[in-house]
Amino acid sequence: MTNRTLNLDDALYGYLLGVSLRETPLLERLRAETAALPMARWQIAPEQGQFMAMLVKLTGARRILEVGTFTGYSALCMAAELPDDGQMICCDLPGDYNAIARRYWQEAGLAGRIELRLAPALDTLAGLQDGSFDLIFIDADKANYPAYLEEALRLARTGGLILFDNVLWSGRVLEAQPDDPDTCAIQALNLALKDDQRVDLSMLPVGDGLTLCRKR
């Protein structure tokens, strides 16, 4: 027994996946195709995708916003749990991986629920309606995380859920004097959220660190 979060070695992580992961064959194929790309490290962990899908169910989300979509794995996980009239807006920049995302969404029969907007995310967010989203997932350029927080708080409804990925940043958040703007931004976000009375807060050691913020 322990009163702190376990450090998962390969064997224990494999056990976790073996007894709990319910990844569909389509998601498994998407993850395998993504693993062959040079930017494969951008892919979220499969157990994180499953957890986020459950959050969609638990919150009854009908409108989801994703900032940073890559090959579409996280979007596919979440969109699958939306009601038939649910909608998801995904923000990303143009890249070869956009076609992969669209191909898998189409194969899953979910392309009609997902709108992919290819432009700088802050430009896309500026044109969206205040309080119009139930769940927002942020997994894009880390240097803009503080700015994404402010936009997410504007766009989420009261009681809505905001998720930030990579908040443990492979341990780089422990660096005393980082010279990397991404690391600095994540450190700044984490410290700011600790005392931000606009949200309820929980940081979880899922994947590379996942912070859940409920807008008060």
From TrEMBL:
Keyword Ion transport: no
Species annotation: Metapseudomonas resinovorans
Record flagged with keyword Cytoplasm: no
Protein name per its UniProtKB record: O-methyltransferase
Gene3D superfamilies: Vaccinia Virus protein VP39
Alphabetical list of PANTHER family matching this protein: CAFFEOYL-COA O-METHYLTRANSFERASE 3-RELATED, O-METHYLTRANSFERASE-RELATED
Lineage, opening ranks: Bacteria, Pseudomonadati, Pseudomonadota, Gammaproteobacteria, Pseudomonadales
Keywords: Methyltransferase, S-adenosyl-L-methionine, Transferase
InterPro entries: Cation-dep_OMT (IPR050362), SAM-dependent_MTases_sf (IPR029063), SAM_O-MeTrfase (IPR002935)
Recorded superkingdom: Bacteria
